[in-house]
Amino acid sequence: MHVPLVNIGTSSITGISIVDAPDITEGEDAIFRVNLTDTYVNEITVDYLINTDSATADDLDVPALKGKLTIPANVPYGEIVIPTKDDNDYEM
């Protein structure tokens, strides 16, 4: 199953990159790592939007596919974790 990150709102943050979650087996978490090239003295909040791609609504164990990631002060990355559910449907 592939669950790609579609959009990330960074407003005035520079030096940010996203590592897309690898293909996963249903029931595993899809994890997106958001990297900062610098650490910040204040926490950073990032808006995100997830595209289900080959997943269906029944595959995901979250109420919404958009949200906010808060990266604590002096930390160079954060992770967006999307839990998935195992079902009997086959997705490519």
Structure description:
The chain has 92 residues and is mostly beta strands. It has one domain (5-83). 0% of the residues lie in helices and 40% in strands. The strands form 2 sheets. The protein has a 3-stranded antiparallel β-sheet with strand order 1-4-5, with no helix packed on it. Strands 2-3-6 form a 3-stranded antiparallel β-sheet, with no helix packed on it. It is elongated, with a radius of gyration of 14 Å. It starts with a strand and ends in a 9-residue tail after the last strand.
Sheet with the most strands, sense and barrel status = 3 strands, antiparallel
Number of spatially distinct domains: 1
Spatial arrangement of strands, main beta sheet: 1-4-5
Q: Can you tell me the overall shape? A: elongated
State the end-to-end distance. 6 Å
Note the total helix count: 0
Number of strands: 6
- What's the alpha carbon Rg, rounded to whole Å? 14 Å
Strand content: 35-45%
Broad structural category: mainly beta
| Integer average pLDDT | 74
| Helix proportion | under 10%
Order of helices and strands: EEEEEE
Low-confidence stretches: none
